[in-house]
Amino acid sequence: MRSVLWKETRDLHHACEEHDVGSAMATGEPPIQWYTDWVKALFEIHSVIDMHYSDSINRTERLKLDLDELKRPNDLIVAKEYAKKLKTEKQIAGTAYVLTGAHLMGGAVMKKRLIDYPTNHLDWENRKEALKELNKLRSREDVIQEAKDCFATLLEIMDEIKGK
Known about the structure:
With about 160 residues, the protein is mainly alpha-helical. It has helices at about 5-20, 20-25, 30-50, 60-70, 75-85, 90-115, 125-140, 145-164. Helix 5 packs antiparallel against helix 8 (about 145-164). It is globular and about 40 Å long.
């Protein structure tokens, strides 16, 4: 059974998958600059939210490994501004729900497709423990708006990446 949070954010989730940048990622062959910028955006956001959760779902260090392999990410204003606004527990939880779900669920598929790209952030030392953390986030009905805000921001980030 799908959670209320999943149902309430489904449309925005699909919009992210259908965006030109999201769609390119799904093929497993996005332009390298788009991928680089996407990893940089994720790094910006995770550098704020990860300190609030267990190591089982933290991605900052793994994203840094990916960035070290990639060349010259663009400076992304939307991701930086969003990360600065993540102040409340609900904002952080809504964002963690969206990103952890993406990395764990879609990431399992993406890792197989992104053959020539660094994908350290999609590796899990303890996937079972990470899924437990994700399930805690999934059960939260009080962060629907915050999760929607995260998805909407991801769409803005994709627009920014596409426009670079």
